[in-house]
Amino acid sequence: MQKGNIGVTTENIFPVIKKFLYSDHEIFIREIVSNAVDATQKLKTLASNGDLKGEAGDLTVHVSINKEAGTLTVSDRGIGMTEEEIDKYINQIAFSGANDFLDKYKDNANAIIGHFGLGFYSSFMVSKKVEIITKSWQEDAKAVKWSCDGSPEFSIEECDKAERGTDIVMYIDDDCKEFLEDNKVTELLRKYCHFLPVAIAFGKKKEWKDGKQVDTDEDNIINEVNPLWTRKPTDLKDEDYKKFYSDLYPMSDEPLFWIHLNVDYPFHLTGVLYFPKVKSNLDLQKNKIQLYCNQVFVTDSVEGIVPDFLTLLHGVIDSPDIPLNVSRSYLQSDANVKKISGYISKKVSDRLKSIFTQDRKDFENKWDDLKIFIHYGMLTEDDFYDRAKQFALFKDTDGKYYTFEEYQTLIKDAQTDKDGNLIYLYANDKDEQYSYIEAANNKGYNVLLLDGQLDVAVIGLLERKIDKSRFTRVDADVIDRLIVKEEEKKEEIDNEKKELLNTVFTGQLPKSDKVNYNVEAQALGENQAPVIITQSEYMRRMKDMAKIQPGMAFYGEMPDMFNLVLNTDHRLVKAVLADSESAIGDSLNPFDAEIRGLTARKDAINQMNKDKKYDEITQESRDELSKVEADIESQRQQRKDTILKATADNKVVKQLIDLALLQNGLLKGEALNDFVKRSVELIK
Ligand code: ADP
Q1: Which pLDDT belongs to residue 114?
Q2: 259 alpha carbon to ligand 1 midpoint, in Å?
Q3: Is residue 102 predicted with pLDDT exceeding 70?
Q4: Number of alpha carbons in the 13 Å side-chain half-sphere of residue 609
Q5: Which residue from 21, 35, 37, 196 has its CB within 8 A of the most atoms of ligand 1, so it is best to mutate?
Q6: What pLDDT does 63 receive?
Q7: pTM of the predicted model, to two decimals?
Q8: Shortest-distance atom of ligand 1 to CA 42
Q9: pLDDT range class, residue 310, cuts 50, 70, 90
Q10: Ranges of CATH 3.30.230.80 domains, the chain
Q11: How sure is the predictor about 120, in pLDDT bands with cuts at 50, 70 and 90?
Q12: Is ligand 1 within 6 A of the CB of residue 293?
């Protein structure tokens, strides 16, 4: 028996391994099983080169638990190790056996699992003692047993072992007992070893017998040695892709479509990416793509490797060229990784483009599900935007689809304003904005339906990217002002009448701290609604953005501002005006006379002091001016109160306001209840 110290420079590396090296202790299973697979692959290479005497035999890797002994064992029938090799590869952990081997079998050793840093030593993260019992493939090799209890000392001795290959026996730590549970080990094998290229058995297949599960004779193979992405696309049918998808994500709907990736140069990468059918935003998750390295699971957090917008896709990427044990920030600056990310992005846009050109109908059918991915891509990657603008679609409120270019051609004639801007009208809710959409359609305008999560952001993007383009929500203004054409003179009523209408309607508006209404009277034509509520595009966008950007809380706290436009051409508004005028009669005359007199006095004072500097004006004069101003204000207020009193019982005003509020979903609670009662009373 030989004893020695493990050749590491640190006094005792094990505490380091245990505590700091890996955040996820469970990955030891990946390391140990992939070493076993690695050794098995090497053996296959030897066999196919004719270097192996005798039969390779059954090469299944076995994982087993011995609860009494408290051990988890991984056994392979790979190349095994001689005592010298243990010394070189295990004791001198700075060495990497894979390097020597790759040198020798350069052209043939592609499938060998790459470097996982400390690999074998990760077993000490969960074990108080580890044994290697191994017998090399070489003729007359003697079996040896290496043992180490987590101190830098190990022992090595000859032992009995009939079969070629290696058993790694891990004596599981007391605080890691979960790794002795069948369920836990099954779960981990599924996670890390699901697609390893050599069969891995854990226990026996079970069957139901006499009301309980019993073992059969058949090995329970936990992995799929030829996963879909390693096969040729030409050998695969749609069903194969769908089946693989449902194996990976049993709870998900059928995918929209998929992309089989396969590159040899300048890096190696294979994989299949799926566009999932997203039922709700809750399904949008960033950890659904699994990253493999030669079929060994590495991670399901692919940020930095896959372009950000594609992290929402599902599927598998397998590349030996992605550095695995480095930090995320390093990944992002790695040139190879950048190339990979660029390649994937290009592949995805190529595929989208080809579906679009080959089967536009199909593409349109899938668009509503696809658009979140495409929008995300356009927003976050300029290159992707440049490619996507050829196939990204607009959908209008009639459910028709257009490319950006087609749409521009469609609306150019009717929707260019007087400054040459192309005005894209849109709605984000077909039902809520129904009357505005109808008005726009009647005017010969087309209205887009932009109801997606990212549409607000995409609007901003398109306004920046497409010259002379503006997006305006269809209820941002009354129809005639939505797209401002050459001014055509309208017959407007005089300002005094407009002011009277303003006062009458303002007086009956609901009072609220959260909503402000700005009332204005305008000739909109006999056929337009009597009262229309609009919200300026600018205000609404600020409010929308305040909801998602904390820095804009100022806008969020501001009351909602709406315009209430009174259509002076409508017969009901005309009737309100006439009724108000007759209800008021002569009662305003005294106020008007008083205001006239006061205004004249005010003008006279101002005239008198016109050329004086501030401190040349007498105190007396100043006092008089403020008194006159206060009197004017008080007269105005009394005048207004008189109007309100005279018109307070005008049910038509209240009814018109409520109808407009109702149409915009702004009538609620008590106000809605009052409206219904009043309406019932009006029905005779
Ligand atoms: P790496 O796998 O990155 O080389 P490890 O520490 O996991 O690092 O393993 C060191 C070396 O030990 C391997 O390169 C291999 O030569 C040898 N080795 C580990 N496990 C086995 C095994 N099951 N069968 C044969 N050799 C093994």
Answers
A1: 36
A2: 35
A3: no
A4: 18
A5: 35
A6: 98
A7: 0.73
A8: 25
A9: confident
A10: 228-357
A11: confident
A12: no
